[in-house]
What we know:
This protein is α+β, with helices and mostly antiparallel strands.
Amino acid sequence: MPEILKAFSPCKIILFGEHAVVYGYPAIAMALDLGTEVILKESDKEGVNIISENYGISWNPNSYEKTPLIFKPFKRVLEIIAEKFPQKAHLLSCIEIKITTKAPPASGLGTSASTAVAFTAVLLNYLGIDFSQNLVNEIAYEAERVSHGNPSGIDNFIATYGGIIKFVRTKQGAHFERLDISENFPLLLVCTGVERRTKEAVEAVAKLRERAPDIVNRIFKMIGEISERAWTMFRENRIDLRVLGDLMNINHGLLSAIGVSSDVIEEVIYLLRENGAIGAKLTGAGIGGCVIGLFRNWEDVESAKRNIEKKFYCLTVKPQNQGVYVKTLM
Ligand code: PMV
């Protein structure tokens, strides 16, 4: 009987601290109950046939065609696994891997990281290699570097470990603290419909920082303090939604100050606030992508959603405490 494996890894939102995290300040990310599913099946076709359901295209690394852009991170994962485990490399053949992401791509929800994490996990599991989260995270980070240049690594951490994390990247490496979070976190996610491009946004912020280093560094410091204050509430399990909402609003103002908001993001922010959000901010790299709104309760989320979805795509999302997992289907 041919083996069939399924891996799942969550997408994420950044609650606090994007951009500042690139410069060593803390950020907080939360895993979502939507993410990427990767199904691995044994097949009679030579090589590793990778099918992207979302893009409707497939690719085989053994073929002579140039690697399409979206498959480059997978190629990197396959190379790393073959380098790290040369005795297993011959087993990377006659398999089909189908990837389906249930989140809008290029919207700042970490779809590339959740895909890289699920893809890595399913392969390691198939090859019978000890399935450690650390190893999955380490390999997926290399795939993220192919997609995004020099990412902080927060996306692959949250896609691997789930829950809610405080993440800090220093010159010595990445540190994180992880907590489970209650499902009762009344959030609405609104997509601007404008693709966000992490690399460009990060570069634009870097240029601004070159022009006004002292001011931009002070803004990053404040963003870091916001993350720390929010994390204390999560860690002590004393979440005051009102205060959390205030911190989101202030964090958004600081992100606008460093130039990563846009007219459409501001339109969504004010729509959320007019519809009862007690906190609203862009999430992820900005310029496009998604905006998150925090509400007092789920009734308020639903009523805001009914109004806002007349113009923008909205999603109600819940936290997901389980990180990446792999199941045997057959
Ligand atoms: O939009 P996303 O999910 O790619 O988030 C990027 C977050 C940044 O802090 C802007 C960059 C990074 O590498 O952390």
